[in-house]
Amino acid sequence: MPREITEAEEFIRLSEEALHCTVKRLPKTVKLKLRMPKRLLTMKTDPSRAEETIKKLQCEIREV
User: Fold this and answer.
1) What is the pLDDT of residues 40-62, one digit of tens each?
2) Residues ≥6 apart with Cβ < 8 Å to 15
3) At 7, is the pLDDT very low, low, confident or very high (cuts 50, 70, 90)?
4) Where in the chain does DSSP place strands (E)?
5) What is the pTM of this model?
């Protein structure tokens, strides 16, 4: 089961260990999904905060 992360700083810290990050853009929200070796971590945020977070991620970024 995926686990939802609510804090952007924790999400960025966990991206160091991730294989890749999938970005799914919806009209009002952006979903960020970190694929870890054993689990999937997700975070929902608004589009303006998502851009700031995506710039800080330390893994491969895949747009869907």
Assistant:
1) 999 999 999 999 999 999 999 99
2) 21, 34, 56, 57, 58, 59
3) very high
4) 3-4, 20-25, 30-35, 40-45, 60-63
5) 0.93
Instruction: Identify residue 19 by its one-letter amino acid code.
Output: L
What's the CA gap between 14 and 30, in Å, rounded? Answer: 18
Q: Which of 13, 63, 52, 53 shows the shortest CA–CA distance to 36?
A: 13
Q: Each residue of 13-33: pLDDT tens digit?
A: 999 999 999 999 999 999 999
In the chain the domains, ranked by start, together with CATH numbers, are 3-63 (3.30.720.90)
All residues at 6 or more sequence positions from 57 whose CB lies less than 8 Å from its CB, including other chains: 12, 15, 21
